[in-house]
Structure formats: C-alpha cells, structure tokens
Write a structure and sequence with these properties.
The complex is a heterodimer. By secondary structure, chain A is mainly β. Chain A has no helices and 11 strands. In chain A, the strands form 2 sheets. In chain A, strands 2, 4, 5, 6, 9, 10 and 11 form a 7-stranded mixed sheet that branches. In chain A, strands 1-3-8-7 form a 4-stranded antiparallel sheet, with no helix packed on it. The N and C termini of chain A lie far apart (about 35 Å). Chain B is about 0% helix and about 50% strand. The chains are: A mainly beta, B mainly beta.
Chain lengths: ~120, ~120
C-alpha cells in the first residue's frame, strides 16, 4: 500500500519564481497537514485540512503561501513569489481522524532551495 | 516562541546502553504528547505517545515518561541499537473540537548509537 506521496523530491528555483509542491494522501485518510522543517525552528505546522476544509492556517508565514485541496486525495502548497528564506524541507502528512485523532503518516518531503 | 523545546541537538550512546532523550514544554494546555523518529531523506514516523492522564507508557524497548509538574517528558530506549540512530522529535497537542490533530513539534535531537 503506497504511503503519502510528495513531488517533487527536490526543487531548486530562483528568487521570485512560483513554486508548487504536491502531495497525495493515503487512500481513505481524511486529514492533511503541511509542515516545514528548518534547523532553527524544527517542524512547524503550516496548515491542515479535514475533509478538504482548511481547519487551521495560522502557521502559514505570509500571503505568499497558499494551500489547496482540490479533491479528497490531493493537495498543493504554492509559494509565489519565492524567497531565499523559504528554503527548507516541506513535508505533508495524512491521517484518518477518528475521535481524538489518528497517527499522522508523513511523506518523504520536498527539499526546496531558493537561490 | 518555541512551546516545545529539545535542548540537546545531539546525543551519542554506546550500543546496548540506555538512551534518554529529553523534551520540555511551556504550554500547560498540552494534554497529549508524542515522539517521532526520522531517518535521513525520509519523513518522520510515529514512535510512541502518552496522554496527560498517565505518567508512563511503554512499548517494547521504548518508554515515555511524563512529569506534568515540571512540564517535562523523556524517551528512554533500552537497550540502544545501531538502528536507533536517527533524529527524534518530541510533539505535543491540545484537545480541541478537532481532537488532538494539531501537533507542535520540537527542533529534534540527533541520536547516534556507537557500535
């Protein structure tokens, strides 16, 4: 059974360019989380969805960041325009929320480098 | 403001000995705590959790201890094995209308097991 799939695995872009990161949830999961990992701040939750509805986007750094779930199995995180300080590893995770919560399964991450 | 702190960025332990990873938190509303393990180029994977109504949870070689008065938790690995070499993240959450889905992570501790 496939886990969470993220693409691309690596992205190198120049400052000012638009970046789109993609995530496919585990089949049957109903919650989707986007995280950013940096050395200074560790893993930060950017936004999460439940049943395709954004629940908490308080971690989104600024308006340059946006996330969507066009359907129950797929999500995108877009950065426009990108800046060097956006360089980080971006993870998405999915879970099946039952009751209090479910284990979050992480994808392998996308390493973003903005020059 | 880092609500979950892992003050030791790295730890080296001899194979067969006990590894103790520590985590402190500042938010007294946290009521559910987790440890995740991360290998290079992979996403974090869930290891063990504990609810605030308990002070200890054990799963094989892994035991998590929670000291609510000190706002401190620790992960014990006994005996330590080479495959335990990884980055360990502590995470915490507060129960809400959406359960315990929103996780706040620490910055991680890199554990190296010396053969």
């Amino acid at each position: 059974d496939a886990g969470v799939i993220q693409s691309p695995r690596h992205e190198v872009t120049e400052m000012g360019q638009e970046v789109t990161l993609r995530c496919k949830l585990i089949s049957g999961h109903n919650s989707l989380f986007w995280y950013r990992q940096t050395m200074m701040r560790g893993l930060e939750l950017l936004i999460y969805f439940n049943n395709n509805v954004p629940i908490d986007d308080s971690g989104m750094p600024e308006d340059r960041f946006s996330a969507k779930m066009p359907n129950a199995s797929f999500s995108t995180l877009k950065i426009q325009p990108s800046e060097p300080r956006d360089s980080a590893v971006y993870f998405c995770a999915s879970s099946l929320r039952v009751g209090q919560g479910g284990e979050q399964f992480f994808g392998p991450g996308t390493r973003l480098t903005v020059l | 403001d880092q609500q979950v702190k892992q003050n030791s960025p790295s730890l080296s332990v001899q194979e067969g000995r006990i590894s103790i990873l520590n985590c402190d938190y500042t938010n007294s509303m946290f009521d559910y705590f987790l440890w995740y393990k991360k290998y290079p180029a992979e996403g974090p994977t869930f290891l063990i959790s504990i609810s605030s109504i308990k002070d200890k949870n054990e799963d094989g070689r892994f035991t998590v201890f929670l000291n609510k008065s000190a706002k401190h938790l620790s992960l014990h690995i006994v005996p330590s094995q080479p495959g335990d070499s990884a980055v360990y993240f502590c995470a915490a959450s507060t129960y809400s209308n959406f359960g315990n889905e929103k996780l706040t992570f620490g910055t991680g501790t890199r554990l190296t097991i010396i053969p």
